[in-house]
Amino acid sequence: MASPGYGKQSAPGQLPPAADDFTHLPAREAYLASLINQLPDGAAMDVKTLAAHQPLFGQMACRTALNRLSAAGHLRRVRERVNAERPQWVFRTYFSRTPRPDAWWNHFLATGDARDTGEASTDSAPDPPEERPRDHTSPASAAYAALAGLGLADARLSLSATDCEALEPLAAEWFARGATLALFVNALTSGLPTPVHSAAALTRRRLIDKLPPERPRPDPAAARIPECTACRTPCRPHALLGGLCRACHGAPPTRPPRSGGLSPTAVRAHAARARQAMVTSPRS
After folding, report:
1. How many CB atoms lie within 10 A of CB 66?
2. Residue 164 domain flag
3. The overall pTM is greater than 0.85
4. What is the pLDDT of residue 188?
5. Is residue 84 part of a domain?
6. Number of structural domains found in the chain
7. Separation between Cα atoms, residue 152 and residue 170, nearest integer Å
8. How large is the C-alpha radius of gyration of the chain?
9. Do 11 and 94 have their domain in common?
10. pLDDT exceeds cutoff 70 at 1
């Protein structure tokens, strides 16, 4: 087992185990993939440990096999922070028994969402939930309670039970964006006209017009940095091809095109004219 927080991490959303999980791989890669698949989460799966715990392949063979498993979509190496309270970085290898394309890995490493990136079929779309009447025996939500209490803060915004039920989704969005009860009441009751002809209509208008901005929330996936499986260089997800950087993958490096450059012959000609001008120019 690796140190706590390190080692193997099973990727979510894998298909159930089957006898042909690794039949598409060469014999060496299929053998090591089967071995890694049986390891529990948190187990060490670096090349030294893999080479020491099986008698068939050495460290270089295990390194090559891991690179090929990464190119086949079975694993990715990342650095990630434990959480916001503990700014500690750990090194994990996400392993998926189910081979995943680069698009799936990029989406998962960037957002933490393990759902398929393809568009869902309209035939399998779930039916919309049925609208059910409010169960008055259950406790009211924070949004409903805040709407019902507006009349206590200002009698001009006294709402009925029907009004509170209709406006509850709009008020719930305020609290979902981090609004406090004091901010909610102050925003809806300040500067009221006299008289208020329709408390429900005015409250609805203010709930829409004064909706607070959506504040950015800390995303654990934002503190996840993918690494090249071969050289362990930190890279952006879209810069990896099969989990490998361009140098390890063998792709030619991308260079910016030269614009307006001079040929060596032109440079030498300009230099010769400059030297000639310095020799023949009159001295002061």
Report:
1. 25
2. yes
3. no
4. 92
5. yes
6. 2
7. 20
8. 31
9. yes
10. yes
